[in-house]
Predict the 3D structure of the following.
Amino acid sequence: MLLLILSCLASLTSGVWAECGLRPAYESFQTTGKRIGTGTDVQPGEFPWLVSIQSHGKHICGGTIISALWILTAAHCFADQLPPDLTVAVGGVDPSLPLEEHHPDSLILHEEFNRTSLQNDIALILLSNPIEFSKEKIPVCLPFVCDMGMWQHCWAAGLENTSAALLIPLFSLPAASQVLQKTQMKLISREKCLEQIPHLVGSLMCAEAEQGGEGGGGGCQVDSGGPLVCSHWNTMKWSQVGIISGGKPSHRILTPVYSYQDWIETETAIRGKPFFTEGVDNGAHLRVARSRAGAQVAFLEHCLLLFILLIAIK
């Protein structure tokens, strides 16, 4: 009887940290999700969805955990085929000392990606084995609205001294310092962005560094392929609003994640490992899929019913 109860509780707690966008190792649930610590160094658990994509043991691009098997990143980080030596470092604040290291099973580049204009600069990596979620390894949420005005408290993170010339092939980047850094940013209008980046095309978005804000303003070089994450109102959850595609230290070009959620769901389903976006779809209808939290509650209910049944039998 005791073993049954312990087994139920262990199964429940093993998945509790898989709910997207939370940071249980960094902040308590009583604080708001908009809190990011001062300074420029990333603290343990502060960006638990961030990964380092590496070739020959060297960091080449950032990426984001969106599920146990899927990493979201930028298409321009890669050639047309998966490099045989590619690895994904997960967890921790030093990519050379990750909590987990994974090998990719396959690489999916957007079929209409344009290396010149950076249109459709989005890619997915399917891992050979699932990430074991913990307080320091958690998926990010994908955005539930496209309205830029909804998103506040935006941040990006990456390796210090990564080249700012993000439009050059990243395999030619010099070795970077192994210190994860963060910078505070804000989404800006297309008109304002065109003043700084005249070649901006299509649906690409822009963010600029917050001058004088926490996290060092524009002093940190953020990773190409990595996420721009934002919170809204007083939520404790973080969503990946953009994928960093290029730009300059003070202004970043972003691939808008909201516009590609159908593409993500379609491509992952084709590979037999479907990813479902939590929240609201493009038609503003609530998705039918049960949330992770709801599944955990249902599991606990089943455990309690089984426990009551065993007592009744005795």
Notes: Confidence is low (pLDDT under 50) at residues 1-17, 161-177, 215-219, 280-300. Residues 292-313 form the longest helix (22 residues). Residues 302 and 308 are 10 Å apart (CA to CA). The two ends are 11 Å apart (CA to CA).
